[in-house]
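Subject: Sanity check before I submit

Could someone independently write out the structure tokens for this chain? I want to compare against mine line by line before I put it in a report. The sequence has 101 residues.
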Amino acid sequence: MATLTYAYADLTAVVGPLATYQEPHSYDLCEEHAVRLTVPRGWEVMRHVGEFPAPIPHADDLEALADAVREAARTEVAPRAGDGDAATGRRGHLRVVPPPH
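---
Independent answer below. Compare away.
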């Protein structure tokens, strides 16, 4: 895994080890996409030299993942104020995709 960070003012994309915190204009990528990333003409790519180490899972990460799986497994999603539409399973920019029939 790697983190892509755009420096718009410098017309530069920086691809480095996975960030430990979220920043604006940063996106996590798998190693394949980190290595193959291309940028628009006129931009520069700065890449980390060497392998991209696998992230070390933390208890908070595993707990958040378990909570997300539990939430997605619920059969009925009741909307909270401002959360989205229960009929489509939509919640903000995320949506629940029903299993194939």
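---
OP: Matches mine. For the report I'm noting this point. Helices lie at 31-36, 59-73.
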